[in-house]
Inverse folding.
């Protein structure tokens, strides 16, 4: 009976090192740039938004739509940056961006970001160029509400505290997901307001009594 050839430990060790090096290079390659967040008045600005969209190789408008829906605010692109209404904590924006990457970018089989979106009928799938896997996009995770949400209505009357002053001199208050601009408001005052107009998550109101 012929004897079995001994294991080539040096060859196995070399392959293991190459595998580790490849993994490390992959991690370095996919390291997402940190969001550069700062505040202008009562707005939140991401100054490197275009760099982020380039890093994940996705349409910036799609990313922006996802973030606006997830953060419950209004906003728009301004060149290479994005401006959100309201002062939103940087961690909230970063976490929502991670949700986007998990849903639209990362391959569920090999964990790589080398994917693209494929439309099949009414459904959109994430196809991996590295391993060939294909999966439907993950639905956006819904956060458990610890408090009941507020339904803001035009003509409705609410008690709010004015937290800031906007660029046009209006008071700014927050109620649940809504940003409310209040004509003649004074920062720090608690007032009773009547909502005159609602546009998405932005509302405009007048003071009834203070």
């Amino acid at each position: 009976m012929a004897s079995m050839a001994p294991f080539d430990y040096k060859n196995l060790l070399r392959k293991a090192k190459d595998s580790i090096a490849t993994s490390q290079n992959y991690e370095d390659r996919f390291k997402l740039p940190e969001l550069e967040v700062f505040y202008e008045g009562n707005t939140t600005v991401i100054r490197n938004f275009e760099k982020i969209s380039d890093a994940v190789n996705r349409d910036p408008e799609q990313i922006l739509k996802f973030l606006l829906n997830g953060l419950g605010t209004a906003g728009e692109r301004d060149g290479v940056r994005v401006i959100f209404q309201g002062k939103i904590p940087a961690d909230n924006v970063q976490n929502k961006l991670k949700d986007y990457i998990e849903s639209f970018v990362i391959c569920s089989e090999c964990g790589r970001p080398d994917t693209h979106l494929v439309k099949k009928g009414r459904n959109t799938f994430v196809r991996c160029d590295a391993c060939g896997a294909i999966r439907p996009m993950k639905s956006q995770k819904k956060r458990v509400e610890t408090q009941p949400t507020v339904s803001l209505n035009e003509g409705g009357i609410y008690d709010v505290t004015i937290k800031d002053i906007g660029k046009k001199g209006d008071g700014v208050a927050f109620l649940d997901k809504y940003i409310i601009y209040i004509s003649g408001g004074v920062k720090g005052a608690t007032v009773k307001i009547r909502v005159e107009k609602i546009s998405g998550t932005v509302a405009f109101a007048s003071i009834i009594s203070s």
